[in-house]
Amino acid sequence: MPILHPTARALGRHADGDDRDPRLAAHLLRCDRCRRAVDALRSPGDAARAAAAPPPPADALDRILARRAAGDRVLLPVDGPAPAPRALPRRAMLAAAAVALLVIAGALLFRPHELEAGRSELRLIPANPHPGQTVRVEYRPGARLEHEPVLILRAAEQKPGADQLRGGRVVARLTRTAGGLFTGSYRLPGSIAYARFAVEDGGGSRVDASEAWDVVAAAADGRPGLEGMKLRYHARSFTNTLAAARTADSLAALYPDAPGAWLRAWWAASEAATEAARDTLKRVHRQQLRRVGALVAAQPRPAVGDLADMVFYADALDDTALALAWRRRLLERDSLSAAAFQQRVFATVERYRGHPARELAEFERMWSQGGRVSPQLPFTATQVAAAAGDGEAVLRWGDRATEQDPMLVAFATRMALRFPAVRGEAMERARRTVRRLLAFDADGRPLELTVAEYYTMLRQHAAYFLGEMGKAMAAQGRHAAARDTLELAMADTWDLSIFRSVAQARLALGDTAGALQAYARVAADPETTQAFDDSVLAAIGARRTAREWPMEVTRARGQMRAWLTARAVDRPVRGRLLLVDASGARREIDPAFAGPTLVAFWSRYCPPSIAQLGQLQALHGQLTRRGVRLVTITDEAPSPEVRAFLARHGLTFPVLYDVDRAARRAFDNNATPRYLLLDRAGRIRFDSYAPDDILRQATVLLDAQNTEDRGRR
Amino acid sequence: MRPPPPPPPILRMIPLVSDPPTQRDLLDRTAAGDADALAELYRRHGAAVHAVAYRLTASAADADDVLQDVFVGLPEALRRYDGHGSFGGWIRRVAARAALMRMRRSTRRGEVALEDDASAAAPADPAARVDIERALAALAPGLRAVFVLREVEGYSHAEIAGIMGLRAGTSEVRLHRARQRLRELLGDR
Fold first, then answer.
1. Model pTM?
2. Which helix (H) or strand (E) holds A153?
3. Residue B16 maps to a domain
4. How many domains does chain B contain in total?
5. For residue B83, is it within any domain?
6. How confident is residue A464, by pLDDT bands cut at 50, 70 and 90?
7. Which of A113, A179, A190, A616 is deepest in the core (most CB within 10 A)?
8. Which of B3, B7, B32 sits opposite A267 (nearest CB)?
9. What is the Cα–Cα distance from A376 to A338, expressed in whole angstroms?
10. Does the ipTM surpass 0.90?
11. CB contact under 8 A, A123 and B35
12. Containing domain of residue B189, as a range?
């Protein structure tokens, strides 16, 4: 009887995994031919599964990110079957394409972050280039720079171990492409571990910068480099502690065995912790300290940087004995390294505390052994010399500090000017400093500042030194020189202590009228009390001054107004100020008000901002009394944490929460602290990053308001 | 080297040890436009997406285009991902659909026929044994798609029918024909 074989289709189903047919299964047990047929059917599948597909192209991710950054979007077939082809008449196809474009455009327009008009974006591809690699730069401008034909990219670059970001240098030209995107390229120098960027117009009059625009040089294995990540952490810790905490977080994830990563994780986390949590945190970190310590100790020749980080980490966790042990290990490993000298400086300070002469002797010995590799040595020695009252040593160590780091010249000069014994030489250094400042070194310009802001900053720094020199000259009895120098300083600052010194110098030279004018500037200041007027009248002679004084004060008030007005702006608030109050209720702030309005942006994650909150609190009362409205805005949602923060710092001013970033858009602001003073019509008239001049600025606006009202009457 | 800055005054508790970002976190961040998150998803799933696309299209250039499109479109597409099933499975399915769309577009341009297996390119010498990759490339796109989705990606015929817009029976028939054709191409006769 012939054997009845199953059909080819039935064998195929079986090969496909369908073994529900018991008769077929029984047949296959007996029939070699059909079994071979099934195996043969299965073999292409086995082979296909075993065959490895080639890997994606190495640059695929870069191209994907570049397309995203250029605004490219793709509608993917997520649901249902891929549409089968349909023959569409040409016109219908065009109409469909137009509808699709509208849908895509609509989707893009209503993406949440696109709602932020004026927000710009800088992309660096790849984000972690290898040293020497060329990075593609793509910049999508916000409102500030969107109409420029060409833009300039500036970079502040840091080598491993550098301490803080200096000014930026021009590194690329960005040219406009279709669609308004600007592109260019930047080559990461081989020696640079970390770089931050800003974009500006050709003249440096409008600048767009963000702390997030940076690159970390890749390590050989492609990870963001350890040194670059440490530098990113330090750069952010000065501007945004939340961003710094995230960086520390990534650092520990990327380099779980590096003591430097855990040290920074501890710095970032420890202050955030409550007392109770801090103990737990410390316990966990001590485990990490032991773990990474064992790893470092197991290395035959550990890196100097790792040893230094172990010293700091043990010290930070209050394990003094362990810190000392690691310090010894560091000194044994390389006693002439910068890190070793730094530790020797600390050890010297601890050992000879209260005996500055012995400290200085030890520092001299270290200097002769090659201590110049560490800026820590001259920096600390200058301070110790100042504390010891040793002017000569201050001068000597100040010069050494400046030699190592030219940025320390201001610190060194300021220290030396305090000592009468070396005042002449200190003044010579101050003169050199002023000349250097007024040479306007373009590469020293910080990334965030426009050329004009930078020049103003340098002139103000120079004015500080001129003021100090003038005061020193006055103390030496050189009144004419003091007066001339102080008058130079007066041109670039509104500093009450300089006005007083000018007045005294003029008085000493018999120039009573000139003295009166300088004193009037002090009296015109809104913070000066009536008691000052009385003391001036008493000093100069009430009979003579009674007539002239009110006129001089009025004139000085006019000078103050002119000085401030020259630094004023006039811009509208763009868009509605929709904010959330402490109860979570939405509130709209009308920029126009019965009087001026101070809008103060602050953040509890920004160290400079936190440092100024006390001043803002003091201003709260002073402004309110004068009829100025205070609107303080923070960049998060109301929460018990914010309330606790306000209570801890004794802050009672009202706070609004920029939950939807409406205020950031309305004021085109990415910074904290930032102070915008609005006139009563709601236009921005003063814009500053420190609250020092706020009261004066408010007085100018109030005066203008009063004059206007009188005119109407 | 300056002394390290003092502990910054962080006022928020941050996790002590950072776990790698969770899939959900990555998906949320990618959907919100975070390029770093997109890059991480690429690192996790890029090779699988590329492999599906390569097997379906049998072309390195087309596979690269599909890979590009899938990840360029991913942030917007994620808004339609409901979170059911594994994300890896979802993105491979999206890649398969994108690859099939691409093959159909090629068909319209007259490059290859997706539906018509008769035009399958045969090797120059039918007797020559070719490796599986070349055999798959020689298969008609419509047969290759079913074969790859079933044999390599492990979809059921019902799922293949859903992805390709076919009936399940058609998928079975195509699989059978694909296997027979591959046997011929591989010389297993």
1. 0.58
2. strand A150-158
3. no
4. 2
5. yes
6. confident
7. A616
8. B7
9. 8
10. no
11. yes
12. 113-189
